[in-house]
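Appendix C. Worked example: F-box domain-containing protein
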Amino acid sequence: MLDNLLPDELISEILSPALKIPDELFSDTKNISPFATYGESTSAYLLVCKSWLRVATPLLYNVVVLRSKAQAKALATALSANSQLGHFIKKLRVEGGFGPPMQNILRCSPNVTDLFLTLDIYSSDNTGGLCRGLSLVNPSRFILHQDSRHKPLDNKAVSQLLATLSKCVVKWTNLVVFHCPFVEHSPPFQQALLPAVTTKPLHTLSIPSIPALSWAYHTFKACPLKTILIKDPLTFWDRSDIPEHDPILMSLLKFTKHPTQFDPRALRDGVTTDLPLIAPSLNPFFVPMANAPKPVQDKIWSHILSLAMPPRKLRFLLVSKTFHRLALPHYYTHIVIRRSEDLPQLASILMRQPTLCSHIRGLTLSWYGWSEFRPDNSLESPPEGQLSRTESIFAILSRTINLSHFGNTRRATDISVTFSDLDREPLISWEAFETLARCSGSTLHHFSSPVFTRQHATATTFENLKALRILVWSCVTAISNVENVSDAALPNLEELRILYSDPSFLSVLSKMKLSSLKRAVLGDRYHANVETFLQTHGPKLSVICISHGTFSVIGVKLFDLCPNMALLTLWSRFEIFAPSFKNLHPSRKVPSLLKIAFDGEYNLGKVKDSEWDIFFANFKPQYLAGLRELQFKCLKWPTTERDIAKCSWVRWAEIMLAHGVHLIDSSGTKWRPRLKVK
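Step 2, the predicted output written as structure tokens:
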């Protein structure tokens, strides 16, 4: 790349968005630092070419964030080698003590205008260098941070820092902005810093939340304040605590409203808070599309309402007769039944207005607790002239001939299924399932409702589900007529989730071709039919989720049965355990496998840690040539230098990196090795 293609000014404009750190991030005082990330360092831009190095260096050093001793040592070394770099530093954020290098950093950074320090410093850290260097800077803005979730730390390092700050603040002649982390109930050893700060000509004071307002206003009243900023967004109830009787305080106060809170007064006055205010038309008699043909008007309004209706909004139906006529079909497109008592009401509506039936695409049963729709349900006693719940579900399913999904779609959104919510979902009878398959089999794409029956179920029912793509199966009933099922059943099935089932269900599936099957989740009940199913359909599967128990039985044979899988998830209802070495060492290479995920809980302990220590020390994926990722759904990477040093997962992640395999946490973030002190 030639260095003279673009002028430096243009290169600077191009690189600025990638290298500049927004002030709202630099001054962020939340409990978890916004810089606790594991992405690629922005310093990589400097390695592209000489012109990028020349232009990007001032941008990179303009805002400096230090989060570890190794970073502080590296920066001190760089500033000592090139003193000009320190003159670029305008904002300095120090999230720890970081020892002697801090003195050299502050000495080489005479132009610092914004300084961020934290009081979350443990006794193992060292603030000596920081304390010796604070007198060498003269910031105009000082941001002090303290984690509000925990008891304030009181140790030698913190006491030394506070004592030094009390002396240095007096000498900071430029200081006009102070971000105060204290509230009235803060310990005296922390508030000892405040007498020095209150002598400064502060024009801006930032406080953490509304409880600190009264105390802070009284403490800093002698300062020529122009603004008191409350950092945390205020709810309606917080705003009611503001002393509006004090006009001076009200003129100083600045805050933001909580984005998710409503204002009860607005609701009381009939003012909606979720819609923007629209200026009234200058012509009060204006009618949109008045000259357009009625079919055109209906088509346009119907399309608009289809976008506005989800989630189901009743108020659009009340605007006018036209809106009611056009919006009603969209209102019934996706129906969620939250109480079993509502089923007779829905059945009655569909019987009175049969034209609505064809518009229903989705039906979700979402109440809490078991409910079974079967003829012998003696608990049902409907009022005279009203259908029972059993009769209602049959009346609904026999009329809704265009259903595309039935059940709880939440159970089919992620291949790594969560099993904690299975015991509280409503059931339907096998007869209702048969009715659904017979009436909506040509349109139904997704089925995920638990099924119950006291009688043997018939395998031929699955032949009607010609359009089904996702099947979440939860039924312990034995299925009869296994030999009679057509091998062409379920021709479009792509994803199969067996949460719990009778062994006969796997026998039924083994008789089918299932030519479109790609993903499978196998429940925690192992039986011999699992291997039969995998022998038939394993080569088609690219994604497999299987329980630890089933995997421990099938073992290494899984790789032979499913030679094309790219993702293997091993899940456990409770704790995850390290799998056996022999089960992850197939006899031949499996280049297709890219990722293994472990889904379950993990409780720290010496015994558990020792098990995984042995696992990672001996895990050598020589036959898993394509393996690049191991993901643990229970893992969240630590965010501080102290926690990183103590974390076993970090140690294991660096062991796996030697094999070219990344350890990934629940959010999908890969571990990146930190800079270390030699």
